[in-house]
Design brief:
little secondary structure, two-stranded antiparallel ribbon, 4 strands, 12% helix, globular
Length: 78
């Protein structure tokens, strides 16, 4: 087994876009994109959609659940 398969989000087709991580303007533009999606985590566990533990609940950036966030968002990639 490859190590990337054992790390959350490590084996996905996600473009991590590391060059954008320190660019506040690019992050703000990404959050303003109507196609943007955010994944809520609680105690290191992702929010899931319904009863399927493999169905992640991707939410729009302005979703009210993020008003309760105790930490700033983390950019996962594109």
């Amino acid at each position: 087994m490859r190590i990337a398969e054992t790390v959350t989000f490590g084996g996905s087709g996600l473009d991590r876009a590391a060059h954008l991580r320190g660019d506040a303007g690019a992050i703000a533009a990404a959050l303003a994109d109507p196609a943007a999606a955010c994944l809520a985590l609680w105690r290191g566990k992702p929010l899931i959609a319904g009863r399927d533990p493999l169905a992640l609940a991707w939410l729009p950036p302005g979703h009210g659940i993020f008003d309760m966030a105790g930490a700033p968002p983390v950019f996962l990639g594109l």
